[in-house]
């Protein structure tokens, strides 16, 4: 099956990914979004890999690596990626674990 990070995702299609049997092979691409300028790279990645990737896991947080609040860049602009939303699993966190010291949100994601 797929690891626990997918089970924390917040989109309806996650059950399809999480319920894959051991015999099924799936190609899963991951991408972490932190800044708005990274969306162009994500757009390119989605177009280039669409034919070979089953699911795209996009991770982001509403806090920076140092714990400062920030916008959910991908989530707020997800309509830009409408042709791919059926393949996207959006993984996010709004909490920072207290036991990490340096770049806590990156370590958590």
From TrEMBL:
**What residue stretch is flagged as signal peptide?**
none
Q: Which Pfam families match?
A: Glyco_transf_17 (PF04724)
Q: InterPro entries from the xrefs?
A: Glyco_trans_17
GO-annotated cellular components: membrane
Q: Which GO terms describe its molecular function?
A: beta-1,4-mannosylglycoprotein 4-beta-N-acetylglucosaminyltransferase activity
Query: What's any GO biological process attached to this entry?
Result: N-acetylglucosamine metabolic process
Reading the lineage from the top rank, the first entry is: Eukaryota
Q: What's this protein's name? A: Uncharacterized protein
Which species does the entry assign this protein to? Eutreptiella gymnastica
What does the record give as the organism's lineage? Eukaryota, Discoba, Euglenozoa, Euglenida, Spirocuta
